[in-house]
Amino acid sequence: MSKVYLSYNNIVSSFGFDSEIAVQNIRNEVSGIRLINDHQLLPEPFYASMVDYEKLQNEFEALYPKGNYTRLEKMMLVSLQKVIKASQINLTDRVGLIISTTKGNIDVLEDNSPFPKKRAYLSEMGSVIKVFLGFKTEPIVLSNACVSGVLAVAVAKRFIEQGRFDHVFVVSGDLLTKFVLSGFNSFQALSKEPCRPFCKTRSGINIGEVAASILVTINENYLTEEAVTVLGEASCNDANHISGPSRTGEGLFRSVRSALIQARLKADQINYISAHGTATSFNDEMEAIAFNRLGMTKIPINSLKGYLGHSLGASGLLETIVGMHSLHQNTLFASKGFQELGVSKPINVIEKTTKKQLDIFLKTASGFGGCNTAIVLKKTKQKIKKPGTVPNY
Amino acid sequence: MNGTEIYENKNVAFSTFIKSAYKNFEIDYPKFFKMDRLSKLAFLAADVLLNHQRTFPEKEENIAIVLSNRASSLDTDRKHQTSIQNQENYFPSPAVFVYTLPNICIGEISIRHKLYSENSFFIFDDFNPSHLLDYSNNLLHSDKAKKVLCGWVEFDNNQYEAFLYLVAKEGATIHSIKEINRLYKTHGRFKTRIKREDH
After folding, report:
1. Contact call for B131 and A140, based on CB within 8 A
2. Chosen from A237, A247, A250, A280 to mutate, greatest number of chain B CBs within 10 A
3. What is the average per-residue pLDDT within B155-178?
């Protein structure tokens, strides 16, 4: 079977409007999370990562939009447009579009929203993005809780392998909203301080907002220098509880095992794990148990939630992209907020950003509904053309 | 079920309909009453279909679940939004919030039938047989699953429908867009429909 690659990518976050600025901040161990005091969002102050609205508006206006677009649509359009432009791919009927989001335009349900309530339907948002960017194929919208972003990459790979598309553009985004904050707050899952994944003193999550985009392709003429090959992917359910992770890490264990089988790799061939690590007590404990069952206790592991918070469905794609850059730079990024191991099984949390030769990494995500996804990615050994140039045949 | 009507309760509210159907099929599962409306609908349809297939939780089966709809979890999203709309009347509930995700109904089915399998929830403007066909074929051919529980489960503005079918590598019905459409259109819209299809 032909190889499927992840290539051109973009991150719209509190750090700015491309992957490089996000990766640079993470490399320097700078967090985008800050204290926000906005009664419209939550009655009490909270820590979160927020995209600068004025700068987003400037970026968006450079695309000469006509009509009205929601905040999330602007973030997704800015992000995806940059990836399409850099790749120079013509949007033919062989080019797919996958939009992955947990809550989409959920903020239009608010009483004071200027948008019609029907904009909350995810297919409406799909259609807006398709028309604005000129896709010929119908958008595929995936909404599978917090694994959406990683699962979207797996879905894109499956459709390419099946011959339906040559290239798939994936965009994943979720917003910081009253809807989401109030919900996690009712679960008492929000941390009162910047989050500390896998740490003894962790006390819950910070929400972040992000839009991330990537090109998934079968064509090796469209690879950037940080491009990776998708070696394996799998998604398994816990079949245990809808809001609490499995005590045995069953779904995550099975997802990773299955992805490794497809990749034809053993656990110890993984150089780095980009975990989900939300910094809730139960989630981080579940992951430690699953990675122990998999024999992955020594592999360097981090959670990137301490940099940009938990961006729900978008987090998996965001962290996949950061992982690609981590591989390319041969650098393990510190797991921000971590001080002392606070899970019952040993794992090797990255405490300081360090240089290390890296070749293969594992990205995992877990979410409500008992869903888990794992994906194994390897550095490309292809001849790389410079980003943004026309392929030279 | 497979073209035959197995239960009817016309002109009643959804809550009455789904409760009486639950009793009719003698489903003993107290957690059912905690579910939101979309999950109740998907759960019941899956239960009838998988029990008919003699799928037993004791014997683990690799059945993937691929569901789709138009309104995602908006029915429950609106409920959560109402609970946070006004500062004076602010009462968000975790029991409601957890159902503000469409894939929760897949979680409920997975728990009930002990399915540790592939699952994904897609959103389309309308029933999309070609997408379901491509995706379930891929899961079967790549050996990700032995069977795929596929379909459309929609709950929006008090209108609802569920259309589920089971795809396997062998069976009596050919797995094609034409056949899926035929099965889907056999009955009028906004009725609960439970079908089976093999190939």
Report:
1. yes
2. A237
3. 91
